Amino acid sequence: MSTTTDIVAKLWGLCNVLRDDGVTYNEYVTELTYLLFLKMLEETGKEEQLPEGWRWGLLAKREGMDQLDYYKAMLLELGKAKDALVGAIFIDAQTRLRKPTNLKALTSNIDQLDWFSAREEGLGNLYEGLLEKNAADKKSGAGQYFTPRPLIDCIVRLMQPQPGEVIQDPAGGTAGFLVAADRYIKDHTDDLYTLTEQQAFFQRHNAFSGAELVPDTHRLSMMNLLLHGIEGGMENIDTLSPDGEALPKANLILTNPPFGTKKGGGRPTRSDFSITADTSNKQLAFVEHIVRALAPGGRAAVVIPDNVLFEDNTGRRLRTWLMDLCDLHTILRLPTGIFYAQGVKTNVLFFRRGKSDKGNTKAVWVYDMRANAPAYGKTRPLSVADFADFEAAYGADANGGAARQDQGEDSRWRKFDRAAITDRNDNLDISWLRDTEAEAEEALTEPEDIAAAIIGHLKAALEEIEVLSDELEPDSVDEAAAVAGAAA
Amino acid sequence: MNGLPQGWATISLAEAVEPDAPIIYGILQPGPDQKEGVPYVRPTEIVNDAIQLTELRRTTPEIAKRYSRSSLDAGDVLLSIVGTIGKVATVPEDLAGGNITQSSCRVRARRALTSTAFMAHFLRSPSARRQFDEARLGTAVPRLNLEDVRAMELPVSPLPEQRRIVAKIDSLTGKSKRARDHLDHIPRLVEKYKQAILAAAFRGDLTRGMEHNGIAAQGGDRIDARASQLDELPIGWAWASIGGVGQVTGGLTKNAARKSLPKQVPYLRVANVYANQLRLADIAHVGCTEAEYQRTLLRAGDLLVVEGNGSIDQIGRVAVWNDEVPGCSHQNHLIRVSLDRAVLPEFALYWLMSPGGRAAIEAVASSSSGLHTLSISKVKGLPIPICSEAEQTELVRRIKSAFAWVERLSSDASSSRKLIDRLDQSVLAKAFKGELVPQDPADEPASALLDRIRSERATAPKAKRGRKKAA
C-alpha cells in the first residue's frame, strides 16, 4: 500500500467517528477540505495568505469547546478573506461538527499524518483519492458528479493535451478532467521543467477553465486544482446561463455534462444558443455550448447518454448541426454500469471543430464497448486495461486521423460514412452486435449491482416519460411543422 | 363522426385505399410449409406492431399466384380480422410479393389522400377499436367481415397536418416504447435481486458485524462441512440438517374410503402452496380418523414443502403456515416441517428459497428415472445453516425489508407499464380528434382534396361507399 492510499484510508476511517455527529459523507469531505487546506498552508509555509490570528497551529493546539468556537469563528473570518483563493474555499463555510471531541479527533489525526511522504506523492492524489471514495459510496450521492477515473485517463491519453492549450470543462464537477489533463502535460514536460517560465506560468494560471454550478462541488474542485498546483480557473457559474458565454474559447474541451432535464423544465438562457434554446434537456444544450466554445480546429471529448444519439427533433437537429460544424470522427459506446450512482447508458463523442461551418464530418467510426461486455459493478470494476483495445483502434492521432481499419460486422470497430448516417436520419445510436444486455445483467450477483441495474432502468424509463410529457404540451404550427420537417 | 376540426373530413376505409388495391383478405389454404416458397403472414406473426420475419411460413408459387390479388407491397398495412382482432403491422420491403391468410386483410393507403403511417396509427387508435367492437362477429372465434372493415370511418385531416400528426405520434410513441422496454427488464431483475439478497443473507453478509452469541445448533445433527462439501459458514454459524432441527412428517393419503368417514376436515393440497405464498381461495375437505387428524393437524409456524410431480424448479417450493384456516390438515404430497424453537420458521423458509437451499433440494430431488420428487427422508437430510436466534431474527428482518422494497418497486413498475399502454392509446385518441397538433388555416382542407380526387376519378370505376362530412 502506498503512503497516499494509506492516508486516504486513514482519513476515510475518521469519517466513521463523525457519523454519530450526524455528518454525511459529502459534508465530511467538505469539512476535511477546510482542515486540509489550513494544514497544507502551514506545511508549505504559505500561511501569510491567511488573515492575522487565524492559523492551523492556533487551531490544533486548542481543546474542547474553545477549539470548536475558534474553528467556527475562523471559518466565518476566512470566508471574508481578501485573498481570492482563501475566500473561494471558505465562502459560506460552516462546520457540521457539534461535538468538540470530534473536531479534536480530526485535527490531531491530520497532524499525525505522514505529510512528508504525502507531499512526495502529491497532496493532489491524496485528495482525489478522497473524492473517489466519496463518489464510490452510494450513500453520498456524489457518484453523479464523478466520472470514473479509468475513463477520464483513457480520454486524456487519446486527446493528448498540449502545453499552451486552453482546456475547458464546462461541467467541471470536482475537476477530474482538468486535473488529469494537467497530470498528462506534467508527465510530458518533466513537471513543466522543460517549458519556459512564461509557458509554465500559463499552465498554472491560464491553461484551465471550467464551470461548476453547485457551490459545494465547486469548493471541492477549487481545492483539487489547488492541490495540483493550479490556481483558479474554475468558476461557480451555470454554463447554460449567459455566464457560460464568457468562458474563453478552448483548444480542448473534456467534459461529462450532467444528465437529465433542467429542474422545473427550465430552458437554457443563453442568448447565443439557436439549436437547443427550446429544450430543457441539459446534455443537448451542453453539446451546443461545447461546439460554440471550441476555437477553430479545437477538439472535444464528451461523455453523453444514449438519448443524445437517438433523440428526435431537437436532438436530431443538434446532431446534423454538429456533424456540419465539426468532424465527429469517433463514438465510443461505453458499457453499462460503470458510473457509480446509476445504470445509465453512455457514450463518448470525439470531434474536432472545423475551420468552415459545412460538411466537416465525412465518416464516423464507432467502437462498441457495450455489447457482450462484462457486467461492471462492485465485483468487476472498470479498469484502465478495459480500454486498451479501443485505444489501439483509435490510433495515435488525437483527431482520429490515424490509419484505421474497419474490422467487420463481428468486431467492435466499424466505420460509417456520412451518407450511411444520412440514411439513418442522422440517428447515431448505431449498434450491430447482438444486444446481450439481458445476458450481461444475468451475470450480476451482488444485490447492490442488481439494485443499481433496476434503478438504472427505472430512471431511464422515467426520463423518457418526462421528455414525452414535455412534448405533450401544445406546439405552435411552426414548431409542429419543424418536427414534421425533421422527420421527413 | 361529429365535431371534426376545421379542414377535416370523414371517409370510408374503402375510399382511403388505392382504387386498384381494394381491402382484401388472403390465401384460404396455403398448404404445407415450403422451403423455397412465397412467404405469407398470419396474425400470430404480428407481435408488438411488427412482423416476425424469421417465423414466416411459405406457400407454393402456384397457390400464391392464384391469390395474386392479395399480394403484398412494401408499405401495405395489415390488419388481423380473425381471432385476435386489430393487430396492425406495416409490410417491410423484404416482404414485397408475399401474401396473407384469410385471418388478416390488406389495407393499401391511398397516397393522394393519406399515408401508410397515418393509416396504421388510425387502425391502432381507440376510434378504430371502437368500430371493431361494434362490427365484431362470432363468440368462440371473433372475426370481422370485410364489408364492415371497408365501411369503417376514417377521419382525415389536410395532408400537411397528417404529416405533423404522424411525426408527433412517432416521436411520442418512440419514447413510450423505450420506456416500456426498460420496464420490461424489471420483473427479471427483481427476481434476481431477491435471489442475491438470499445468497448474501446465508453468506452472513447481511448481518456482518453482529455479535455472534455462540452456536445455536445444539441438539441438531451437526453436519461436517468438509465431509458433505458444504460451503464454509460465517463465524458462529453451523450446519445442521432439517431433520435435526425439526419434526418432518407426511400427510393424509387420498383414497376412496375417506369419503365415507364421518369426520371431514379442511386440508391443504399442492395447489394451495407456492413459493413463500399460500393460495387459500379453494380449500378441499377430506375424511380422516381422529388419530390421523391429531397427527396431521397443522400448527402456526409449520413449513409446508411441496413433494414433487412438477418441473424441477417447482419441487420443494415452500411456505410458512400461520394458521390462516384453523383446524387444517394436509395431504401427503405436502411435507410438513415443525421446527424446534431454536430455528425461526421464516429463517428456514428463506434458506430453502435461497440459491444454496434450492441447490440442495434439486440435488436430492433428481433421480435416474427422470421423475423428480422429494420424500420425508430426503427433506430430513437437507442441510440448513444455523446461527444464533438474535442473528436469525435480524436476518429475517433485513430480508423482509429488502423484499418489501423491491416488491413495492416492482409493483410500481408494472402499474407504470400498464399506464404507458394507456398513454399510447390516449395519444392516438387525441391525434384523431385533431387535438394533438395545431391546425394551420393555410393547409388545403381535406374536403377540397377529396373533391379534387373524386372529380379526377369521374371516368374511373366508382368508389364503393364514399361518404363525406366536411366540418
From TrEMBL, chain A:
DNA methylase adenine-specific domain boundaries: 121-441
Enzyme's top EC category: transferase
One of the protein's GO biological processes: methylation
Lineage: Bacteria, Pseudomonadati, Pseudomonadota, Alphaproteobacteria, Sphingomonadales
PROSITE patterns for this protein: N6_MTASE
EC number: 2.1.1.72
Any Pfam family hit: HsdM_N
Name of this chain's protein: site-specific DNA-methyltransferase (adenine-specific)
Keywords, comma-separated and alphabetical: Methyltransferase, Restriction system, S-adenosyl-L-methionine, Transferase
Origin superkingdom: Bacteria
Catalytic activity: a 2'-deoxyadenosine in DNA + S-adenosyl-L-methionine = an N(6)-methyl-2'-deoxyadenosine in DNA + S-adenosyl-L-homocysteine + H(+)
N6 adenine-specific DNA methyltransferase N-terminal domain mapped to chain residues: 8-50
Similarity comment: family membership: Belongs to the N(4)/N(6)-methyltransferase family.
Entry keyword annotation includes Secreted: no
One MF annotation (Gene Ontology) recorded for this entry: N-methyltransferase activity
UniProtKB/TrEMBL annotation, chain B:
GO molecular function, one term: endonuclease activity
Domain of life where this protein originates: Bacteria
Gene Ontology biological process terms from the UniProt entry: DNA restriction-modification system
InterPro entries, alphabetized: Restrct_endonuc_typeI_TRD, Restrct_endonuc_typeI_TRD_sf, Type-I_RE_S_subunit
Entry keywords, A to Z: DNA-binding, Endonuclease, Hydrolase, Nuclease, Restriction system
Region annotated Disordered, chain positions: 438-471
Domain Type I restriction modification DNA specificity per the UniProt entry, residue ranges: 34-174
SUPFAM superfamilies from the UniProt entry: DNA methylase specificity domain
Record field: compositional bias (Basic residues): 462-471
Pfam families: Methylase_S
Similarity section: Belongs to the type-I restriction system S methylase family.
Protein's UniProt name: Restriction endonuclease subunit S
